[in-house]
Amino acid sequence: EAGVAQSPRYKIIEKRQSVAFWCNPISGHATLYWYQQILGQGPKLLIQFQNNGVVDDSQLPKDRFSAERLKGVDSTLKIQPAKLEDSAVYLCASSSRGRSQETQYFGPGTRLLVL
Amino acid sequence: AQKITQTQPGMFVQEKEAVTLDCTYDTSDPSYGLFWYKQPSSGEMIFLIYQGSYDQQNATEGRYSLNFQKARKSANLVISASQLGDSAMYFCSLCYYNAGNMLTFGGGTRLMVKP
Q1: Closest CA in chain A for residue B106
Q2: Which of A19, A101, B47, B80 could disulfide-link B33, Cβ–Cβ 3.0 to 4.6 Å?
């Protein structure tokens, strides 16, 4: 069974530029999560999708971050414009149904550096 | 709000010895789950073990076991017979029932296995 796929693996941009990350969850998983992991910290949830609907986006900086999962499968996270403090690893995870205490499976992450 | 604390930023262990990684948490919700993840330098979060708050026995998965002390709100990870490949960051995380499936992570512990 293929795991969670993410691309690109690395991205370097200048501040005020835009960037997009892509995630393809494990086949059949209804729930998809985007986490931000700043160096030296644990991951922090940005947004959670159930199929193509948003379950929780309370920690997503909506003035510059956006995410979509139009067909309920793969997802895109965008930052526009990027700031220096957005430098982090962006992790995508998926779980089968999004039920409480269900195991989440993570992708390899995208490492973003904003100069 | 729930909080996860991992007090050991870094630890060394001799190969083939056992090691305990500490995790304490704070939640007022009686129904919750605790997850441990391993993050090697490649960046992917690898699920290790899960403990539900109502589970009567401590969870075990191969060389991993969880020393769950509910009254003390601690969920320490025990790795037996350490291997060089165990060198990585280890994250404790909490999921509680009323928040869907959102994980809150601790700050992590870096484990280094010495040959």
Answers
A1: A42
A2: A101
